[in-house]
Amino acid sequence: MCGDILKFVLVLLTCALLPINGEINIGETGKVYSFKITSDENVEFNYTIHKQLWDSPNYQPYRVEVSAIDANRSHPVFVVVRQAKSILSWQLPLLVEAPNPDVIDPFVEYRNTSRILCEAMYEYAPGHSHTSITLQKANRKNPNFSILLSTYSEKPVSVMVRALPVPFYDVTPNRNYDAVFSPSEPVYFVYEFPAKDVETVHLKVTSMDDVCFTVSIQPHICPIYDLQDHITYQGKYQTVSKNGGLNIQRKEFEQSSFVIVFVAHADNYLCDKHAGVPHTEETKFVENKQISRVQFTIIERKESSSFKAIISLLGFNTIFCVCILLLTCCFYQCGGYYYKDHDQSDFRRDCALTPDIVDAMQNSEEPKLSTFNGQGKRNQRIAMNYLWHIANIAIFYSLPVVQLMVFYDRMVSSTGNLDLCYYNSLCSHPLYFQDFNHIFSNLGYVCFGVLFLIITAFRHRMPSRPKCGIPRLYGLYYAMGLALVLEGVLSGCYHICPNQSNFQFDTSFMYVMAVLIIAKLYQNRHPAVQASAYSTFTVLGLAVMIAMLGIIYNSLIVMIVFYVAFVIFCLYLAFKIYFFTNVTGRILTVCGNVCDDGVSHCVPNRPCQLFFVFAGLSVNSAMALSGFVLYPNIVDFGTYLLIILMGNAIMYCIFYIIMKLLTGERICCEAMFYGLLAVLFWISGSYFFFNAATHWSKTPAQSRLSNQDCILFDFYDTHDIWHILSAPALFFTFSMLSALDFDLVNTKQNDINVF
């Protein structure tokens, strides 16, 4: 900013040092004047505005158009417009910097220029103390202005000048306006809030071409920053190529009015990372090829409609949770899947898995659950460790996240740079935060997470028959409920300012929940050989780290490293699922048998389970290979990893249900009911998830091409609906898992198969 002030001072000094001999003319608005100037002679036009015009409430400011076709950088033409309280100056050719770092000459020359003279409604005035300033109504006593044109060129330079009033300077709500502008011909308009009722308005911008431009909202105070190199000095702004939108609140402007500024960029690099205008060392002159035509509308928003949408979602979650609680009570009274005696002895004597027991498990064609449930208290401790790990992660992970996102929100407010955050600009409602609707729609995760914790605590207190049914290990269920709550909290934090650097906040606990589902299903039938929370979260931490690298570096190397690590890990899990324990030893044993007796003697004890293991390996290999096609052009790495984890959780659920049915077990009505609801919510929610309204992997302007209008209560968009639907989907998934083995509550563990 200091550099621009220095330039301004130099222009004034240059004009002061020019020869005083020159021609002074009386200017007539709307008339084009053509003439030549040299270093020995400058030209001045004085424009007088009649009193009846500037006293009129419909008074419009003036635009000054200056063209100098044969001006050059060595001897530019200086334009100085003097008003009663301000001076506006620039030079021709006007040099506009192209942000593309690959061009040889970063500046584009424009010899056609147009600037609007500032006629602000308000101005700064001294305050009550000598160190303070206040805003007061501008006193427009003398709207007359003069235009001085000069140069140091010894050769005559042809110049054309015109001054004319600006039509449609003051805009009204709910009406479409057209604007045409270029890098050297910015335009701006003024909007004033009505006296009452309206506290927020929304500016919707639609471009009729693909020229990159900036739209800025500034206070209605002179000077107005309307060129590309200083438009970011005050107010807030965003880059746009096709679609854009900004929310403006009355409280942001003391004077209850603001200016809407449009200026095109010299090229399209900031919008799509590709220069829209060719720049070479030989081609240094591009004459206003970056002309943009846009249509914009001011839409007034009333707080009453926002509060209706908020109350509606709050009521939906409350009623839904109450109904689920009542339904759980009905299942408890009528289902018959709870043992109602008061003998709660559910622990077997702690005994280690001896080598003989391990060999018996691995060689048995139909291993039984009783073999895997010999260490009841140890199994309980391992299960509860998941809950304490989640709680510790929540403390040490969530606090920095909250701190960082509040900092982001303050940065956006202080700098006005809306390109920092990838909002759906067509459906974002400010209320405490810039994008309150996407934060509030995460309420369902918190509500349903708390509900699942309550139901889990209720089931945990119910007595069980000793040595019957699936072991009552509720630690993972508590961890699932807490993870669901944390998903809502962190997703809300992410939506304070969504962008590439914090995307993992939105998905971290989705990864956790997918892994917890797999761990719980395996724990049901293998309590003695279940994975500890330490190993589970270590592997999950490595996955999150790889996801972070994939987000930061869109590189093929990251994809190759992930593929190799993922395939090795899947092979280990496949052997773990089939051999139960001592994977390395069993692999060596099988290899020894193959060498001694040949492949024909290596007949699997559990062929059905082996088939599903190989099927899972094949599907995972295919999903991993698909990353080379999908990443990074179609999906980002974080979403890709989430699809893999969720896909494995779904596959393991399907495998578990099929094996239950193949071993003669059945699915109880409660589990089928929850499962059906989970499928319905997942299918409907997935549609809105993939119909994304933002893409942080692209530039902010490209992301705004996907922005969509609100579709529910004129407050929620597709991503909000994904939040609303995925929360009950996860809840019903967890509920289905917890009820999946209710049919075995009275079955002896000696008769329950392991798979």
How would you describe what is shown here?
With 755 residues, the chain is α+β, with helices and mostly antiparallel strands. It has two domains: 300 residues, no CATH class; 447 residues, no CATH class. Helix content is 44%, strand content 17%. The protein is built from 18 helices and 21 strands. The protein has a five-stranded mixed beta sheet, covered by helices on one side. It has a four-stranded antiparallel beta sheet with strand order 2-13-4-9, with no helix packed on it. A four-stranded antiparallel beta sheet has the order 14-21-16-19. α6 packs parallel to α9, α8 packs antiparallel against α9 and α8 packs parallel to α18. The protein starts with a helix and ends in a 16-residue tail after the last helix. 39% of the residues are buried.
Shape: elongated
**In order across it, which strands form the biggest sheet?**
1-3-12-5-6
Mean pLDDT: 80
**What structural category characterises the helix and strand content?**
alpha+beta
Instruction: Please state roughly what percent of the residues sit in beta strands, choosing from under 5%, 5-15%, 15-25%, 25-35%, 35-45% or over 45%.
Output: 15-25%
- The first-to-last residue Cα distance is 69 Å
Uncertain segments of ≥5 residues (pLDDT<50)?
8-20, 128-133, 277-286, 339-353
How much helical structure, as a percent, in the residues? 40-55%
Helix tally equals 18
Largest sheet: 5 strands, mixed
Using DSSP, what is the number of strands? 21
Radius of gyration: 35 Å
Question: How many separate structural domains?
Answer: 2
